[in-house]
Amino acid sequence: MSYPRILVISSCTGEKSAKPANQLTLEDFRDPRHLARREAELSAFSRPAAELYTGAQHLRAVEGIRLLRQVCPADFWILSAGYGLIPEDRPIVPYEVTFNTLKGAELLDWARHLNIRSGFARLVKGYDLIFVLLGENYLRALELPVPTRPDQTFVFLTSTSTAKLIKVGQAKVHTLPLSNPEARRYRYGLVGLKGFLLKKFAEQVLRDPTLLEAVWRQPEVFTRALEGAQPTVAQEALLEIPQVLPKPKKISTQKDEASPVEEEEDREDETYLPIPDLPRAPNFHLGMQYYIPEWDDRVDPGYDFLSDTATHNRKPYLHDVYAHEIYDTPNYDGVLLSKVKVDASKAKRALVEAVGVHRFIRFPTNRPVMGDCGAFGYIKEEEPPYTTAEILEYYHRLGFDYGVSIDHLIVGPWAQPGVREKRYDITWRNLEAFITAHRRGGYAFIPIGAVQGWDPESYAAMAKVAIEIGYSYIALGGLARSTSREILEVLKAVYPHLKAHTRLHLFGVARINAIPAFRHLGVTSFDSASPLRRAWLDSKANYHTLSGKTYAAIRVPPSGEGGIRVRRIVEAGIADLSTLQRLEAAALQALRDFDRGHLSVEDTLAAVLDYDRFLGLPREGGVDTEDQARRLRRHAVLYRELLEERPWKHCDCPICQDLGIETVIFRGNNRNRRRGFHNTYVFYRRFRELLAEGEKDGKIELMEATHA
Ligand SMILES: [Zn+2]
Fold first, then answer.
1. Last residue of one domain, picked from the residues 201, 230, 259
2. Measured in angstroms, how far is the CA atom of residue 682 from the centroid of ligand 1?
3. Which helix (H) or strand (E) holds 448?
């Protein structure tokens, strides 16, 4: 799983751990040399900024950050009215300065003296998701806007009166204005409320780490997470598209500009990774298999697209179908099912336990289902919550073809020296115990040794031992966020230890242009859901094609039940519901007429944009006209390209063949996830073609991707 880079900025507080009589005042901060002298006098009170402040907002924020760090790295900076913008570990001494008592020009002069605006602009550059916990005067000191990028997201927790101060350039922004009603609603005092809400959000993130990505893509999810306080909020937001649409990224309309989101998800998709100058790995003849993670990616097979109605009385687990039930043959060689996903709901677990994994996912028995624990689900625990004995029984009982030993992730804060060694030892011990107990128990499934590490050498050392003690299949974890080049270095270190019969899996990595290089170095399988999920999570690469070209899907959000975007627009008084319903129907009709050849590109585009022009989410109750114009220009370019090139007409997959233009309409799970299935089909075909090319070069027969 990948995470946005997170920054939290909070204000300094009057309450500090010490209040010596000679603490610094504003005058002391004017001259650096004088300041240094005064600081020396107070050195007994010096401590890192994070520890000096004791106000409620600060304490709650620090607690929130600690929770966030159980999931991924997060940086914490403080806006100090004395020191300016400082990192949490900067040693400081007590002072008595606040922006709250400064006014107008005086405030701005002081803020400029402290270089706050430029410091803020420089700081935020390195982050994707930025939480700003500042009251009115501290916010004024920032002198927004500063330059930002469309792939950045800001969440402001601030006071009600500051709406006009919040301008962030190209980034997405969500503001949670706080006053007494909010304090009552969230049952916390107004003074520390900003920090309290950050902590409350962090608690939700612990239950559902996908929330971070969800908020990064749709910052409104932040408030929903606080209100819903449900572990499923992120999933709803990410998967149930009719409820909340991702806010389209505001980026230039130049077609050749790479979407930052694409860079994040498929970092090096555009750069072909050269094949290292080493002989082919001895296991090259084993071919390469693509696994898809099972994340309940199903659709309603009887969905009526014309009326947008679901099958009557449908029971999702039983009636909905997976991609492999729509295509003649699956678009993946195998499925990876994590224990955390099985345990995600009681109903699902009971069903899997009752029928076994193959029948549960209705996957052909000649294709493998791989099981792992889903180390991510317990990343914050000191030790994995399972024992080797119970996991062996679980894989056996549920009929897995492959079972992965119990590992512990070494990423983010857990890759620090001192922490990583413990996790490395745990993974190593489990790796040894797993194969020993597997032999003793005479289990039929094939054991996979999970290997973790923090650099090429640590990975290689464990991989070497795994192969020596008899594993014929090993899997490298913790590399999903690494660049392809970093992965290449790890693979080069593991490579000398591979035997002709060793299989090597990469967890969570699918990069089409790195595949030949990975295979050359001995990777025989990998898993990823990225092609599927980009159908609705990417800002514009929603529909993929065999040439590698991608298209934006046309957003026609529902105005009826569950259409949250439209509801908010109506509530803000931007348009009335009947107008929106009429425009929505006209847009859909135009797209269908276009698909039948009865309407021109121009007329179709006009109908789509007529609806689209109302769909920018209102901000502070009104429409940002500049924002709206930009959105419309961008959509006009992207949609025209899609309509002119009609890529769905050139796709021979059953989804594009059956649904035609519905496939490229961004609207609801049934269209969006089917488009994801199409993307998976495209990815798998491109992957197979790459493999075939590799075979041609080496004149070696491709071993079929079926398991023994
Ligand atoms: Zn298709």
1. 230
2. 7
3. strand 446-451
Residue 88 falls within a domain, yes or no?
Answer: yes
Establish if 246 belongs to a structural domain.
no
Residue 687 Cα to ligand 1 midpoint, Å, equals 16
What confidence tens digit (pLDDT) does each residue in 370-389 have? Answer: 999 999 889 989 999 999 99
653 CA distance to ligand 1 middle (Å) = 4
Residue 621: predicted pLDDT: 65
Range of the domain at 463: 287-293+329-528
- Domains of the chain: total: 3
pLDDT value of position 542:
96
Is 422 in the same domain as 498?
A: yes
Residue 139 and residue 133: Cα distance in Å, rounded?
9
pTM of the model as a whole? 0.64
Q: How far is the CA of 648 from the centre of ligand 1 (A)?
A: 6
From the CA of 148, how far away is ligand 1's center (Å)?
A: 36
| Same domain for 471 and 334 | yes
Residue 292 forms beta bridges with which residues? 335
Question: Is there a catalytic annotation at residue 372?
Answer: yes
What lies within 8 Å, CB to CB, of 534 at 6+ separation is 265, 541, 542, 544, 676, 679
Same-domain pairing of 512 and 649: no
Active-site pick, 527, 538, 595, 612? 527
Q: Give catalytic status of residue 109 as yes or no.
A: no
Q: Classify 97 as helix, strand or coil.
A: coil
Angstrom distances, CA of residue 610 to CA of 1, 218, 246, 556, 588 = 38, 24, 19, 11, 12
By the CB criterion, residues less than 5 angstroms from ion ligand 1 are 651, 653, 656, 678
Q: How far is the CA of 325 from the centre of ligand 1 (A)?
A: 15
Contacts of 436 (CB under 8 A, 6+ apart): none
For residue 469, the domain's CATH number is 3.20.20.105
Q: Residues of the chain whose pLDDT is less than 50? A: 229-269, 699-708
Task: Give per-residue pLDDT as tens, 458-499.
Answer: 999 999 999 999 999 999 999 988 889 999 999 999 999 999
350, 452: one domain: yes
List, in order, residues 6 or more apart from 515 with CB less than 8 Å away.
288, 687, 690, 691
Phi and psi (nearest 5°) for 98?
-145, 150
Pair 18, 146 in one domain:
yes
361 and 218 assigned to the same domain: no
Distance from the CA of 674 to the center of ligand 1, in angstroms? Answer: 9
Task: Pick the catalytic residue from 128, 333, 372, 612.
Answer: 372
What is the model's pLDDT at position 334? 98
What is the CA(563)–ligand 1 centre distance, in A? 27
Same domain, 455 and 591: no
Burial of residue 315, with CB atoms counted within 10 A of its CB: 0-12 exposed, 13-18 middle, 19 or more buried:
exposed
523 and 566 assigned to the same domain: no
Ligand 1 centre distance from Cα of residue 164 (Å): 46
Judge whether 248 lies within some domain.
no
pLDDT tens profile 176-210: 989 888 888 888 888 899 999 999 999 888 888 88
Indicate whether 692 belongs to any domain: no
